[in-house]
Amino acid sequence: LTVGAGRFTVIVGPSGCGKTSLLMMMAGLRQQSSGSILCGGRPITAPDPDRVGVVFQEASLFPWLTPLDNIEFPLSIRRAPRA
Q1: Alpha-carbon distance 48 to 26, whole Å?
Q2: Per-residue pLDDT in tens (0 to 9) along the chain, 83 residues
Q3: CA 29: distance to chain centroid?
Q4: Residue 38 forms beta bridges with which residues?
Q5: Which residues contact 27 (CB under 8 A, 6 or more apart)?
Q6: What does the alpha-carbon distance between residue 19 and residue 16 come to, in Å, rounded to a whole number?
Q7: pLDDT at 40
Q8: What are the residues facing 42 on neighbouring strands?
Q9: With a threshold of 0.70, does the pTM exceed it?
Q10: Cβ count near 27 (within 10 Å)
């Protein structure tokens, strides 16, 4: 699938078909098991707010992170100073 610059693409399908998984992979929040996802010709291997933005439907926490890690996660993406 190739989506041109300035184009909108809609992903539809029944519950459980992988829409959210695909979006999470495209945002660098989940690793794909095969293939590659490119943005601007470069692979997405981690969150990169300079190329991909995410707006969640609901505010939520990442269950695999500790409470502190959940707080630090958006700060680390913004490369905020540790202090």
Answers
A1: 10
A2: 888 888 989 999 999 999 989 999 999 999 999 999 998 889 998 988 888 888 777 777 888 999 999 888 888 888 888 77
A3: 4
A4: 43
A5: 44, 47, 52, 53, 54
A6: 8
A7: 86
A8: 39
A9: no
A10: 20
Q: Length of the chain in residues, anyone? A: 83
* Six token digits for residue 12: 């539809």
Type of residue numbered 40 = G
Give the C-alpha distances (Å, rounded to integers) separating 41 from 36, 45, 50, 70: 11, 13, 14, 30
Specify the residue for token string 């958006």.
Answer: 74
DSSP for 37-82 reads: -EETTEE--S--TTT-----SS----TTS-HHHHHHHHHHHTT---
Rounded Cα gap, residues 55 and 32, in angstroms: 20
Residue that the structure tokens 């943005």 belong to: 39
| C-alpha distance across the termini of the chain, in Å | 42
